[in-house]
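Posting here for the record, re: magnesium ion.
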Amino acid sequence: MEKLVIVPTYNERENITPLLDRLFGLPFELHVLVVDDGSPDGTATIVQERQKLEPRLHLLQRPGKMGLGSAYRDGFRYALDHGAEYIFEMDADFSHDPDAIGSFLDAIQDADIVLGSRYIQGVTVVNWPLSRLILSYSANVYSRLITGLPLADATGGFKCFRRRALEGIRLDRVKSEGYGFQIEMSFRCWKRGFRIKEIPILFVDRRAGVSKMSRRIIWEAAGMVWHLRWLDLTGRLE
Ligand SMILES: Nc1nc2c(ncn2[C@@H]2O[C@H](COP(=O)(O)OP(=O)(O)O)[C@@H](O)[C@H]2O)c(=O)[nH]1
Ligand SMILES: [Mg+2]
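Prediction output follows.
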């Protein structure tokens, strides 16, 4: 497998089938890994049914909701073990447009990591409540101030990594779960000297299912940026 799209799911029954249709309908060959945390709505069963017809579909099942960050960490290990060269992060809820994957692949030709950014061509977010937009935008200003990470959108979750970037950082040291996870991954890659490129994406709020955003996730990210700065200052960021 050369290109692998990792899709973490928790209760995404309405979204998963149309999403897989779109991904497997793209004009190039890619594999999809769904990392499901025992969704009570049966998301994993739908994926298993589809696996019978689709050899490019992979499933990692975890016993319970263990967080987005650890879902991706397990997904990244799977990707590295299976020889993937381009590894994507993507939400299951259609906030990330599958048709944008081609532009990530173009952009990564001269980068190690490509980030889908909501804030480099004005604000390209549709249907979010203003409060959620302000939270996300401020989180980015805050994280840039504390960590120095030169990105317009460090909390976004539509990304592509080259294999060597994931191999180049200590995945077992990455601890955060929510938005903090996105910042932490980019920060560690940036400090390792990997080239990060942002491309504009249009982010549309989910059309089905519910968000798993929580207050805990916000506090985790708020503390994580200080933690990263501290590790870096004391030379302990490996
Ligand atoms: N496996 C797994 N997936 C999760 C977890 N939390 C969220 N997700 C998935 O991560 C993606 C983004 O979550 P979402 O609730 O849309 O967050 P939001 O877009 O920030 O509101 C979706 O595909 C979710 O189903 C989790 O604990 N485990
Ligand atoms: Mg979402």
